[in-house]
Amino acid sequence: MSDEADRVWSGSWVAERLGVELVGDDRLTGLLGLALRRNPKRAHLLVSNVLGKHVPQSPSVVYGYGVELGRRVRELLGAEEAGRAVVLGYAETATGLGHSVADGLGLAPYLHSTRRPVAGVAAAGGFEEAHSHATSHLLLPEDPALLGGDGPLVLVDDEFSTGNTVLNTVRDLHARYPRRRYVVVALVDMRSAADTGRLEEFAREIGARVDLVAAASGTVRLPEGVLEKGQELVARFESKSASESVAEGSPAGAGPSWPVAQFPAPPNGRVAPLGARGTARTAPTGPHPDEGRIDLHWPAGLPDGGRHGFTPAHRELLENALPAMARRLADALPHNARRVHILGFEELMYAPLRLAHELERSADVEVRYSTTTRSPVLAVDDPGYAIRTRLAFPAHDDPADGPGERYAYNVAGAGFDAVVVVVDSAGDTPALHAPDGLLARLAAHTPRVLLAVIPSYAPERPSMLPEPLRGPAFSSYAPEEVGWLLQDLSDVTLEAPTEEREEAIQSGGAHYAESLPVEYQPSEQYQELFHAALEDSAARIAQAVGVVTEMVLAERSPRPVLVSLARAGTPVGILMRRWAQHRHGLDLPHYAVSIVRGRGIDANALRWLALHHDPRDVVFVDGWTGKGAITRELAQALEEFGKSDGITGFDPEIAVLADPGSCVRTYGTREDFLIPSACLNSTVSGLISRTVLRADLVGPDDFHGAKFYRELAGTDVSVAFLDAVSARFPEVADAACAQAKELLAADRSPTWEGWAAVERISEEYAIHDVNLVKPGVGETTRVMLRRVPWKVLARAGAGSDLDHVRLLAEQRGVPVEEVDGLPYTCVGLIHPKYTRGATGADGKAVSV
Fold first, then answer.
1. Cβ–Cβ under 8 Å, residues 344 and 372
2. pLDDT band at 833, cuts 50/70/90?
3. Residues 673 and 774 grouped into a single domain
4. pLDDT, tens digit, 9 for 90 and up, residues 656-689
5. Residue 530: enclosing H or E segment and its boundaries?
6. Which residues form the Orotate phosphoribosyltransferase-like domain (predicted)?
7. Residue 496 pLDDT grade (very low, low, confident, very high; cuts 50, 70, 90)
8. Whether residue 679 is found in the same domain as residue 773
9. Distance of CA 608 to the CA centre of its chain
10. SS3 of 773, please?
11. Using an 8 Å Cβ cutoff, are 90 and 101 in contact?
12. Phi-psi region at 233: left, alpha or beta (left = phi > 0; alpha = psi -120 to 50)
């Protein structure tokens, strides 16, 4: 190899033809070469000489750069902050670099993004890479709490060009897992002057500190029209028949070697040359008939990489196992092998790198390392071009984006005596061994091909939760109207007489959610009241539905996932879904979940939602607020769920039809008026009971339960209620949109007026338990239908909104007291010292 060739920069070919320049640190041309690719956003490609992706390199150089960057991050953070840090690498090019940075940092756990979805593993985040040919990145930690701490997050990529990818990542993660500090790590910082200030501006915007650590910095100067010229150049070279032989790995001249600047100095002070081969030899003309398989004895339980997280304990396990695995690898090599290449597999970069590094340290062979890639790059056999040869082969890991070509660069023609291919078991498929597969392609260019397969790490998956229940099998609603994240307990006897339930609940012997009240069967007179109330209030309800839906679409999400709190929230959620369809043509997903006072929301339902939807799009829906107990219950439950499962993003703000208690910001009205769906139980709620949570029926991996009262179909008015309200949408649409616009501009901060009133009433009537005070028309109706009522407080002058309450009170012998200055239309009081058979103010039993 001549001194002249030794001095050729591997970016000169592109620079001369397109006028592209690297400007900055002197070490840039040693770290980077240039190539061209077919890409509509950016034709040129910065090719790292020390990353171990496109350019075979000494593993000690590749690993050394990552470890040194990690040590610099540790110095920047200090020992205490470094001990709380988490490292996140980018797929596919920086997965190994990120691992190495984590090693240099010390005890930091590591995770890398992935483009390989894994069934049963919930995504803890995701982001887009603006300039890439494949953009969707997923974060799939086995333990979602990995990202939930407040220590520094260290983001590692091979190059920092525009900063868009990092900003997209931080924006997504900060919304879910806010923290005070981020550190961006890259081999090269190549931002333009226009992009330099964006990171600082973004840091101020989110209120966090963002530091940057890079091995070298500079920028790429691109002349006008470079994209079009680059695309034309790629098309011209790809059309030449000669390029086909290059793509298949025609022999190339000796590659250049580049001096390494002071950061960090590899053992010999130089980046190892690409070619550096001795005498020429003739490559075999066909696949080697006997590619050998190496059993590494990979340790059980050791992940193959950071796709699902890699902890310090994993790192220690790997370190202890590496010497023995490297010996097995060395023993499998041909006895006369002097130049050996370890070829990793797309995102699987770290394990092959560490094997190559250990082999380089312990065996008397020259070792080079690189990996296959999804990125299509033009190959040009010229010392001034970074990609000298290209092997193309079919994907062999059943990728989520379908079949396609994959590539190995600068391996063919490099004079390797053996190539060891390292894949995970997901990539050990027939396509790998096919006549046109990777192993056969390599066998045409090296005397010996060996294969080492690392077990693909499969996280311990949570139990597979069932799909939502839907009508008509469960509920009288149409299947598209709502999916119930519940289990069907219809065959279990759960009902108990009201008096028995009340005594058990108040004595502490049972929780209200462990049994069901006997379903109240309305008299003919009561049913007539329901239909009259529906006729009078349908337009009013329709307008409130429109208002709250418009507010959700404007403030919460343009395509929300409606999640009703079963069961009172379910009719409201269906009406909101119908409004979005009527007014905006949206087909919104809608589910119903269980929330139980004192027990929280169904965590398994949350897990199902997080697995199928972005938690940030979920909007919890309820019918109305009373004193705000469920509002507080939901907020506390979601906070605890975030800590236990590491899944965040669920917004505890409930959207309600009516908010008389002033407990929420998203509502259709704050007036306390009769919502006819509160007048009945299951017969206006799809024939579904209230939810049940009892240990002998609901296991740790089950949804909460409920019953479907099919036998009550003759008196079911669930769909009739929905149809009566949604029929009024056209006439109230303009008014609802105008009212929503006014409310969006107004101060809607909760005053918790209702809670204060309940505490006042509790003291005044010597109840001393706010849970026995049920404010509002809806809650008072529930008291009359399900509990043992003591008395009803009615606002003086309340009109027809209370006709059904007065009728129920008369049937149950419950006094109704008119009270001045009541903030609600009415308040229902549950008997505060109940014993079996007692009801009403006098404690005597009354048959219903």
1. yes
2. low
3. no
4. 998 888 889 999 998 877 777 777 788 989 999 9
5. helix 524-555
6. 31-218
7. low
8. no
9. 12
10. strand
11. no
12. alpha
Domain region containing 785 = 753-830
Say if residues 333 and 450 touch (Cβ distance below 8 Å): yes
**CATH number for the domain that contains residue 791:** 3.30.1330.30
* Paired tokens of 195: 């992009």
Distance of CA 136 to the CA centre of its chain: 12
Q: Name the residue among 212, 104, 221 with its Cα closest to residue 159.
A: 212
Same domain, 558 and 410: no
Most confident of 304-308, 775-779, 801-805, 829-833: 304-308
Q: Alpha-carbon distance 442 to 412, whole Å?
A: 7
**What does the alpha-carbon distance between residue 69 and residue 92 come to, in Å, rounded to a whole number?**
19
What CATH number should be reported for the domain holding residue 582? 3.40.50
**Is residue 447 one of the residues assigned to a domain?**
yes
Bigger pLDDT: 402 vs 377: 377
Instruction: Give residue for tokens 């982001």.
Output: 127
408: which strand partners? Answer: 391
Q: How far is 27 from 488, CA to CA, in rounded Å?
A: 67
439: in domain:
yes
Look at the block and give the residue holding tokens 């990353």.
51
- The token pair at 522 is 């309305």
Cα Rg of the chain, angstroms? 34
Structure tokens at 33: 């070469």
Residue 763 domain-assigned? yes
φ/ψ of 449, rounded to 5, equals -115, 125
As a whole number of angstroms, the distance between CA 139 and CA 299 comes to 24
The H or E element containing residue 514 is none
Torsion angles phi and psi, residue 186, rounded to 5: -150, 155
Question: Looking at the structure, do residues 735 and 772 belong to the same domain, yes or no?
Answer: no
Nearest to 19 by CA among 232, 188, 217, 230: 230
Q: Cα(first)–Cα(last) distance of the chain, in Å?
A: 102
What average pLDDT does the segment 421-432 reach? Answer: 94
User: Are residue 582 and residue 722 in the same domain, yes or no?
Assistant: yes
- 3 state SS of 620: strand
| CA proximity to 185, closest of 143, 207, 217 | 217
253 class by beta-carbon count within 10 Å (0-12 exposed, 13-18 middle, 19+ buried) = middle
* Domain shared by 741 and 760, yes or no: no
Structure-block tokens of residue 431 = 């396509």
Q: Do 657 and 554 share a structural domain?
A: yes
* More confident of the two residues 518 and 220: 220
Q: Higher pLDDT residue, 47 or 699?
A: 47
Indicate the number of domains in the chain.
Answer: 3
Choice among 20-34, 161-175, 774-788, 830-844 with the minimum mean pLDDT: 830-844
**712 and 617 in one domain?**
yes
DSSP of 134-180: S-EEEE--SSGGGG-SSS-EEEEEEEESSSHHHHHHHHHHHHHS--S
- At 272, the pLDDT band (50, 70, 90 cuts) reads very low
